Model the fold of this input.
Amino acid sequence: MKRPRRKAKSIQTFARALATTSATWWLLLSLYAAHVPISTSANENALSKALDGIEASIQLLLLNAIVCCLCFLIAFKRQTRRRTQHLLTLKEDAHFGLHSSMGAIGPLLKSPLSTPKLNGGLPDWFIQSVEYEHAPLILKFIESTRLSNPRIAHAMASCLALLCLNKDCPASSVSNDTPSWPLAVGESTQSGIKTNHHGNCSLLDHSVRVAAYALIERESFSYQGLQTDLSVLIAAQNGFELDRQDALLILLALVHDIGKIKTFQLNEQKDVVAVKGHHGPVGAALLAQMDCIKALSVREQHVLFKAIYHYHSPYHYTVSSMHNLGDERAVASMMLLIKADKRAGQAERLGFTQKSDVLEFKKELEKLSAFSA
Done:
């Protein structure tokens, strides 16, 4: 921000100096003309000489203005050429897997994130657990995706393993997520235990549940463009159609809250005592360091990072100068994520999964089993 201000200030200073010089000459010439006497025919020669002097002064004034304008144009051109050359000499740099052609990128976080080290696969306690009711559906999806899209399947398995390593991390904290539903934070009407945004479930449970809802929501999902609960901000472009069989949609749903692993500070009782940063940007930065995410295509990474960064605030989604959404795959994926996340949150606040949802999960599991058989 300093360079544009400095440039504007220099132009203003030059324009002020030019105006002051011109006004000074005009004032002197006006005073000189005012003191020239209007004489009779006997003084016609003196009057003629005075008029000639004024004409010469006006010509000198115009010449001075022309010279000032030329100096201004030359200085402006030299400054523009120098800044253009400086811009072209900037080298591409990278930070957290994000690339820039405008030189070095400043730190996104106050402290660097440590790259998670994953050893082995998923733990047996998760595979055999009945606590996570949607685990069989997601595990079956990963299995069925290994042939069609092995990179996505590997990324899902790795991120799921990371969530399992942090199984004690809660899905919500009162200080980070303000409830927006009728049921206030307090006693649950069913279990009698304290409730918060996600019904006291873990981050692992919530992530798997959102991925499961994304599986069943994608079939009937209708993309309208970038929108909120109140209105459509930017309508979808003609001709775009979301690929509902895109496995990246399910990976996005699984990892959308993974940044909470780093932003939630837990005490010995595994309660959230502090929240440092927002889990959206931190989650995108964390994923950018994982080898399984780096193995994805550049466009797939773009979709993940954009959707995770903005799904909490569609109003802040970046658009082009022409009010264009650009890659609508990222926007459509984010809209599906928001819908699945809301359905999962509703089930968590109720404390149970509705029968209609259970039936849909069962049908989806049967379809995946038939596909992989």
Q: What stands out?
A: Residues 2-89 form one domain.
